[in-house]
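re: that chain from earlier
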Amino acid sequence: MKQQIIVIKLGTSVLTAGGIHLHKPRMVELVRQCAELKQQGHHIVLVSSGAVAAGRSQLSQPCGDSIAQKQMLAAIGQGQLIHLWQTLFALYDIPVAQMLLTRADVEHRERYLTARDTLTQLLKHQVVPIINENDAVATSEIKVGDNDNLSAMVAILANANKLILLTDQAGLFTADPRIDPDAQLIAQVNKIDDALRALAGDSGTSLGTGGMNTKLQAADIAQRAGIETVIAKGSETNIVVKVMEQVATSTTFIRFDAPLDGRKKWLLCAPKSTGTITIDIGACEAIAMQGASLLAKGVMAVTGRFTRGDLVTITNPDGQLLAKGLCAFSEQELGMIKGCHSSDIANCLGYKASNVIVHRDDMVLL
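^ sequence. v structure.
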């Protein structure tokens, strides 16, 4: 089997076996499987939930569910969680390292590259990175919000071959298997569309922050980056090894054959858009079918506030998302030149400027 970089996301329901505290026997079994894959030559990265659950087990009195209280539990539990992982992996003489990330760490290009370089060095030295969102300090503006999407970002940072999302369900079903006995497992997905998204529900437990919907978001990001994604049931015996042997009961999202380059991977996984540009049908076809840059002639409307270099979303006349990219103009400048020919931009603004609105090298199709 070809050596691969594998990112494994472990949800709270998996690590607690459905309870409210970390389930050590389950964690021991997961570590054993990771050690087996390490022996086969694979590199392992864990995106681990469980800090809040670990913190809850350290308090003698019950705690509420406010943001401040959850952040307190995460602050208490994060050290406990990494210590437990360190102890379990030490049984197999495998060193581990902790990385706590927020959205700001991947939105900022320099910090993104730093995180990528750190991950690369850890894997080079046969260390298992254990990654979680920095819940103790993250605010709503910088939170990724769930470890499913975080794991997709980590998979891109690690240049992974495969992303495994372990949860309390065997995969994506045609209906909710908890209430519909006729629900059928969807074994393979080539492309995520609106019909598939309609099948996704809310979080299956009160402990987790991500449901099937966030897993589809993560799979969509990973697919476009050229990373195969698998959703599988974390409680199934030897599940990680079975996924690698392609014999697991699971849902596999086939990676796209033309993965994005490094800069576009960053655009795909990282920044939040600050504005929207609506473009006409001709511009849509040029961008989607011909790989063209966005020109001022094709711009119909501009909404939101942004400056030069900010990320914007690009939609078709019906408001459907087409792409996102780095805009070469502010929203005020773009409002002055929308619909103009590129040769007229300098005259409209009164100074020399770029002849494209969003260059194709700074754009990722969605």
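The chain has two domains: 5-264, 273-365.
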